[in-house]
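yo

u said u wanted the structure for the complex thing, so here. seqs first:
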Amino acid sequence: MKKWQQRIGNWLSQQLDLPTDVILELPRITTIGQIHAYVENHKGLISFSDEELRLKLKQGQLLIKGKGFVLRMMLPEEILLEGTIHEVTFIDQNG
Amino acid sequence: MKITQGVFFTGYTTLRIEGKFPEFFLNRCVENGISVWNVKKIDEFTCEANVRLEDVPVLKKLRSQLDYKIRFRKRHGLPFLLRSLLKRRSLVAGFVLGMIAIFLLSNMVWGIKIEGVTPEVEYKIKENLKDYGIKRGAWKFTIETPGQMQQKLLADVPELLWIGVTEKGTTYHLEGVEKTIVTEPEEGGPQSLYARKKGIIVDMYVEKGEPAVELNDYVESGDLLVSGAIGREEEPTLVHAEGEVIAETWYKSEVVVPLNVQYEVITGEKETHYGVQLGGVRVPLWGFKEPEFKRMHEEEYNKPFYLFKWELPIKFSSKEISEAELYKESRTDEEALQIGVKQAEMELKQKIPQNSKIITQKVLHRQKENGKVKLILYFKVHEDISKPQPITQGD
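structre next:
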């Protein structure tokens, strides 16, 4: 069922030229160099420290590692992270 | 960074969250619509974050539901600043008093400088100014404008030929020019007297010079009356001819007198209302009730307030409401005639020399049309028609 839904969504976004993040509820991550990371469409904060940020996604998690992290802004589905970013990893729940 | 916009004015606090998984508490905050920013992790069980002052009640509710320790660590923003200012009441009071003092002092007259006149006249001007209420310490908004001052001074100090009043902040600069009374030279140069206008000579009084006309002579304008050249014709002695030559002259004037007139007369009953003009709105301070006058005449004066040298948009306004009465008068033809004659005589007297006499007056023409009487009058006047003219010596 879920696979089917995703396929419809994929097709829709391609045909109607809609941004994929809106249709598929996927996160949109914008980084500005190493200093800022702006994450939209996340599903909640799992853990946060000055070296690590873990966010819940619709499927799996997002892990951002670095140092000197501060959450500049926190809104229901948006987060602005400041610090020095070293890596951004997607963690699949199944894997 | 939209959420942090304007937080200085609404106020915000820094809080410290202690407990297991402080992130969870933050999640719950965000879900409940609380904006959180500048989140820092201190250690595993502590977090620091900023929230808006208006979100604090929601936060406290959440705190009671969840097992976290929340401490408010720092308060920022205008509301807290104001609160701490209010605690120092004497400071605020001093500031307000200072502002009031500056405002009051900016609206006072601090100095009057008079230039260009002798000490006696200066003293006179000062005395007069005192009478008008212009002295050190007077309120600027209660006294007249420089223009009015100028006119009053000119009328009250006869020694003044001209006076300029300028207002510079809290000082008034007065610059005067005194009349210099020139004593005419006793003996002028040689001159003759000529006729200023046509007439018949009725009287002559010649002090010096040779009369060129006789009584009952008809003279035209420009005719020689008294010659300054006396003695033999070949070698005349030139003198300063002086004297009066009275002649009968004629004037024709036209006047129109309306038969029905309406005019307003102020009875003397008056009320003065004071107020403050704020921009375009008048806020009354004294005198709220409109006087019960049937007819009235209003006059409004506005004087601006000052802060240092700047004019404030606030003005002190005084409104004088005087009772007026309407007079209606209708005249008969005969009355209109008399008024017309009087009016024409007045006008004529302004035109002719002061010691002239109006001998007779005659109505040449009288016409009534459109409720008006039109008169053409004829006057006979005895006046001095002599006009001096220097004799140029042709060498």
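The first helix of chain B runs from residue 7 to 10. The two ends of chain B are 103 Å apart (CA to CA).
cya
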